[in-house]
Amino acid sequence: MHRVKNHVLDLHLQANQLFDDLRAGSVDVVNRGVTRDTYGQGEQFAHELVEKHARSLGLEIRHDHMRNTYMVWPGIDRQAPALVIGSHLDSVLGGGNFDGAAGVMAGLIAVQAMQQAGLKLNCDVVVMGIRAEESIWFQVSYVGSRGALGTLPASALQQRRIDTGRTLEQHMREAGAEPEAVAKGVAYLSPKNVKAFLELHIEQAPSLALTGYALAIGTGVPGHFRFPRVKINGEYGHVGLGRRFRHDAALAGADLSVGLDALWQQWDAEGRLMACTFGEFQTNSARHGMTIVPGEFQFSLDVRAYDDADVVELEQALMAMVEQIEKRRGVKFDFGVRASSKVAKADPTITQQLRDCAKRLDMKVCDLPSPASHDSAAFCAAGIPFGFVFIRNPNGSHHPDEEMSIEDFLQGTAVLTEWLATHGDTNSSACSQS
Ligand SMILES: [Zn+2]
Q: Which helix (H) or strand (E) holds 369?
């Protein structure tokens, strides 16, 4: 085992500087926080920033057809499958500075620590800045990672960005990417050239902050099904209309949300993990009014769980509820486009090794199933094993108040560095995707 001696002060300053520069270049005064829009200016800035820093460390720079950024620290055997460490560099509108970016910075700091310690690994270590993870922009998940792995469906190219109205294909072209490679299913990354993927990410819930752990080892990424735009069609009516004549679309939406929430409460009581979110929930503002029975209602729905069988069970329960509501309220649900992703379990061998690394560094860690979706799931689906480290964040994410201390970040990075230094020349087991 090689123990990496961190030049702690240097790395502390370096990490602070990187995060400060990143914030300064993507600050959003209108929405507070930062905005690093997918295949837009904000994301582009972040890629250029990390690339510049990587060059200063002497890393090789590559880009794939998605315009993901690869910062390569060469190993002894250039043909050996690489260890890839990274995360996404985009953010939601008015998001926090650390969601995603922390995973890329962790890779750069880990490489710097190993360089300072005079280490040389057998295989390449690749720090990957991933594009387009935040599905809010194009309503498609894992665009950059799935594109790199050759698993992004060509239909995604025609999705329009919610603010610009332009397609993913157009945005990709503007960023210098090659959308035609997506249509051909080109796989830049595969189990042949990637031995394992490591991701560090802030926790998107306050559970670590509440239990007093600075770090957790992620055990899996939930599977989900999603409907970006569900429409309930009822009938507009006069406010004086009797109950039996109504086809109230808004109350039908309310029924479903209350029904699913009650189911969640029941699962919680039974210790079963799931989550459901109605991120958008509205009547038609062009036609609604205080004295009008709503004839239309629209919502988005994301339902997630940690076992594929649970995801199936939840979708069946949802559809059974919908059938009852349709009968009771005299309305029709139109679910529109459906997206889904499978549960991705972190590689058990890597997970145990990460726990052992933390122990050797005298750090207390717990296990944590991820509350959110992450690019790691796309790697797992493509047969590449992954390991995951969470950093404590008391304030949740996808808003400007997200928080991470540099001390916690450096602890998580030290665990990854220890893992890379220890396992950079050994084989890990295959991915276990359920
Ligand atoms: Zn993220």
A: strand 365-369
Ligand 1 centre to CA of 139 (Å) is: 15
What pLDDT score does 434 carry? 36
Model pTM score: 0.85
For residue range 330-379, what is the model confidence (pLDDT) as tens digits? 999 999 999 888 899 999 999 999 999 999 999 999 999 988 889 999 99
Question: Cα(82) to centroid of ligand 1, in Å?
Answer: 23
pLDDT band at 423 (very low <50, low <70, confident <90, very high): confident
94, 91, 109, 97: which is closest to 21 by C-alpha? Answer: 97
Q: Domains along the chain? A: 8-222+343-423 (3.40.630.10), 224-341 (3.30.70.360)
In the reported structure, the alpha carbon of residue 88 is separated from the centroid of ligand 1 by a whole-number distance in angstroms of 7
Say how many Å lie between the CA of residue 382 and the centre of ligand 1. 19
User: 199: CA distance to ligand 1 center in Å?
Assistant: 10
CA distance 197 to 232: 41
Residue 1 in this model has a pLDDT that exceeds 60: no
* Closest listed residue to residue 273, CA positions, set 240, 303, 294, 299: 303
Contacting residues for 151 by C-beta, under 8 A, at least 6 apart: 185, 187, 378, 381, 382
Q: How far is the CA of 374 from the centre of ligand 1 (A)?
A: 6
- Between 199 and 428, name the one with better pLDDT: 199
